[in-house]
Specification:
The complex is a heterodimer of chains A (316) and B (338). Chain A has two domains: 170 residues, 3-Layer(aba) Sandwich (Rossmann fold), CATH 3.40.50.970; 124 residues, Rossmann fold, CATH 3.40.50.920. In chain A, 35% of the residues lie in helices and 18% in strands. Chain A is built from twelve helices and twelve strands. In chain A, helix 1 packs parallel to helix 7 and helix 9 packs across helix 10. Chain B has 338 residues and is of the alpha/beta class. Chain B folds into two domains: 299 residues, Rossmann fold, CATH 3.40.50; 26 residues, no CATH class. Helix content of chain B is 42%, strand content 9%. In chain B, the strands form two sheets. Chain B has a five-stranded parallel sheet with strand order 1-2-3-7-6, sandwiched between helices. In chain B, helix 1 crosses helix 3, helix 2 runs parallel beside helix 3 and helix 5 runs parallel beside helix 6. The radius of gyration of chain B is 21 Å and the shape is globular. The chains are: A alpha/beta (316), B alpha/beta (338). The interface between A and B is large, with 47 and 47 residues.
Chain lengths: 316, 338
């Protein structure tokens, strides 16, 4: 995924000189995960900005750039560190188009790695997608593979609105997927059906996709699997279609359960397809605790916890 | 452009006229607020002179990130009174479609950016705007205004830090009116505000923001510095908030007014006295200018009052360039028959 993202940003910069990359360590170091590797050499320090260590400043400055004609791609080194910029994101970025009656827009991509599984403890592991998805004016996406990473990033760059681009850091170097050369788009707001099945539906996204897929394959589940890809606005048609098809729905995400994305998915199904349900909707999620350093393997949803939920909905 | 020492009579009279218009407009809005016609107001009374000086020295190409208390600046820069009223009244001619509280202006054609309520949150945007201008080789500088309270925010320091590291042409002007709602500047900061740039390598100076000539002289140096490409500059303009913070608070609870409307230390009165002494105006012309300002303010108010409000369903527009299914579904829900 790192290579795919790096190549995508490179091509976007080559295509449009208004694209600017900025953030902590994105230049000389190429980003702590190397997503912006070599861009400084190629495009120079007017287009690749190593910034002071201040997330509020990075996001605020990127917003001003976007309002006045540039197309910044700002990196927040870990999603855990985005909170000083939260006021900018919620009160400026998400509202500038609205509050100016559409006369200003903020075509800005905020890229940030999220999620655990890298022994990062409290502050390199959180999954904060729900914070952003609660704010109208934002678009929130998360790829689960290198192909979607490129397609979603390109689609985000074609928007004239801000996009929170969440990168599951555990998957940065996982697996090998062929990504076609060149730029292509994956439509924002459309889920991917990863697998057809009739007996139950598993709805997931981002970092949990490989865990869900390996569980399904290993256990030979007859499951319809959805990768949401976009958190806001989520693909309600795909969600309702699969819920109606199987009547048994499990939602898997790494973020904590309470008021998480799974709660919204459950509510959408309850409002629109409750008559199709054959079992309660079950959420398999990270626990409602701060992200632990030791024992993190117990925090992350795994095969065992997913299979417990499968048993519950099948045997109901 | 005005220069100290050669401010023409005409420039001085225009400045004075706009100060009178701003004061009369403030009074009118407060009265409309009391009658329930305008929802809210943040008066600019007492700060007209520094605001006018800023507009006198700024060029058309300069981008201004003002704050919610800058009425006189708008008028001096040429924003039509009608456009200001349309925003205050949230009518269907309001460019912002009634989405913002009164005084939260955005006049793109006059290069006024957009005002938000969270104090200081526009300041980091100014450095991005300055970066975009330099990158796109556009003429002009960025001017940011804010109150003394804003100098305590992280946004202020974030902006100074960025402006300094990237050597950006932002002129930061603190309109220190002595109060952040009920908190005096002495409780906001122990240090002098104009010195706060020093830690970032940004020069600063304090000017008497209640005196037009002193304001112009002090600001000129700052404008020249920023225009020459040397980087950012921080001005602390000492002024005075004559009224309450907003129509929602009562300053009697926390202070005694030191400057009042029409008193000898009222900045507009000071300009008036100067012009009388210089023989630019006489008391008859002052009387007629006051009457003219009031007449224009009242007449335009009546005119704009007759414009209908926006359609309710426009609340779902402009959340995104293209609405998602969520806004469309909620729009249908709002429009559903009873």
């Amino acid at each position: 995924m790192v290579q795919s993202l790096n190549g995508s940003i490179d091509m976007l910069m080559a295509e449009d000189e208004k694209v600017i990359v900025m953030g902590e360590d994105v230049g000389r170091d190429g980003g702590v995960f190397r997503v912006t590797d070599n861009l400084l050499n190629k495009y120079g320090d007017e287009r690749v900005l190593d910034t002071p260590l201040n997330e509020l400043a990075i996001i605020g400055m990127a917003t001003g750039m976007a309002m006045y004609g540039l197309k910044p791609i700002a990196e927040i080194q870990f999603q855990d560190y985005i909170f000083p910029a939260f006021d900018q994101i919620v009160n400026n970025i998400a509202k500038i188009r609205y509050r100016t009656g559409g006369r200003f827009s903020v075509p800005l991509i905020i890229r940030t790695p999220y999620g655990g599984g890298v022994r990062g403890g409290l502050y390199h592991s959180q999954s904060g997608e729900a914070y952003f998805a609660h704010t109208a004016g934002l678009t929130v996406v998360t790829p689960s593979n290198p192909y979607d990473a490129r397609g979603l990033l390109v689609a985000a760059s074609r928007r004239n609105d801000p996009v929170i681009f969440l990168e599951p850091k555990r998957l940065y170097r996982a697996g090998k997927t062929e990504v076609p050369d060149g730029l292509f788009e994956v439509e924002i707001g459309k889920a991917a059906r990863l697998r057809e099945g009739d007996e139950l539906s598993i709805i997931t996204y981002g970092s949990m996709v490989p865990t869900v897929m390996s569980t399904v394959e290993k256990n030979g589940l007859n499951a319809d699997v959805l990768d949401l890809r976009t958190i806001l606005p989520m693909d309600v048609d795909a969600i309702i279609t699969t819920a109606r098809k199987t009547g048994r729905v499990i939602i898997v995400h790494e973020a904590p359960r309470t008021l998480g994305v799974g709660a919204e998915i459950s509510a959408l199904i309850a409002e629109r397809a409750v008559d199709s349900l054959l079992a309660p909707i079950i959420r398999v999620t990270g626990y409602d605790i701060p992200y632990p350093y030791s024992h993190e393997e117990f925090y992350l949803p795994d095969e065992k916890r997913i299979m417990r939920a499968v048993d519950r909905v099948i045997k109901y | 452009m005005a220069m100290v020492g050669n401010l023409s009579n005409e420039q001085a009279i225009t400045a004075y006229r706009n100060a009178l218009r701003a004061r009369a407009l403030d009074m009118k809005i407060i009265s409309a607020q009391r009658q329930g016609i305008i929802g809210f107001h943040v008066p600019s009374q007492g700060q007209e002179i520094i605001q006018i000086a800023i507009s006198m020295l700024s060029d058309k190409e300069d981008l201004i990130f003002s704050y919610y208390r800058d009425l006189a600046m708008l008028l001096q820069r040429g924003v039509p009174l009608s456009m200001i009223y349309d925003q205050l009244l949230s009518n269907s001619k309001d460019f912002q479609k009634g989405r913002q509280m009164p005084d939260h202006f955005s006049f793109k054609e006059f290069n006024f950016s957009t005002v938000q309520s969270p104090v200081g949150a526009h300041l980091p945007l100014t450095v991005g705007a300055a970066y975009a201008m330099r990158y796109s080789k556009k003429k002009g500088i960025v001017i940011a205004t804010f109150g003394d309270g804003a100098t305590s925010t992280s946004d202020f320091h974030a902006a100074l830090s960025m402006a300094s590291v990237f050597n950006l042409g932002v002129l930061f002007i603190c309109e220190n009116n002595g109060w952040a709602i009920s908190v005096p500047t002495s409780k906001q900061t122990k240090a002098d505000i104009y010195k706060k740039g020093a830690g970032y390598g940004i020069p600063g100076k304090r000017v008497d923001g209640n005196d037009l000539i002193a304001s112009l002289a002090g600001l000129q140096e700052a404008f020249d510095y920023v225009r020459s490409g040397k980087g950012a500059y921080l001005v602390e303009a000492v002024t005075y908030r004559m009224g309450p913070h907003s129509t929602s608070d009562d300053p009697k609870k926390y202070r005694v007014d030191e400057i009042t409307d029409g008193s000898e230390n009222d900045p507009i009165r000071r300009l008036e006295n100067l012009m009388l002494r210089m023989g630019v105006l006489d008391s008859a012309s002052i009387q007629s200018m006051r009457a003219q300002a009031k007449e224009e303010i009242d007449r335009t108010f009546e005119e704009r009052m007759s414009i209908p409000p926006t359609e309710p369903e426009t609340i779902f527009d402009d959340v995104y360039e293209n609405p998602s299914w969520i806004q469309e579904e909620e729009r249908r829900d709002m429009n559903a028959p009873d």
